[in-house]
Design a protein that fits this description.
142 residues
Amino acid sequence: MSDDDTQPGDTQPDGTASDRHGPGSTAADRDVSDRHGPELGVPELDPVIHAQARLRVVATLNVLPDGDEMAFNSMKQLLGMTAGNLSVHLTKLEDAGYVRINKTHRGRTPVTFVALTKRGRLAFEEYTKAVRALLDNAGGRP
């Protein structure tokens, strides 16, 4: 599909959504998330981290000292995830540059280690700031 074939709602090569409402759409056509974006001071949440399973993975790795790794099986048990589910989410995080996956051997046994990258730490820090700002602006306070 060429750039000219882009339809409303399609994903762009950089992972962002195109204008899903098409040309000439009005604010009334847009959903709440479109009307309450950065222009109103509401922070955007990183969609790579925001998925519950990936948020749990990144939060788990963030408590490790910089450069430390966690074994895949340990993470799988700690998070109560299946190997397949964890693997899919780690791939998404790796594609974003947020985690580093190191496959090695202990003797003849294959072992996979996962570490949060500097980019991943920064993204998690920005994500937590955005969540705090979102909650602070949610109201309910005098």
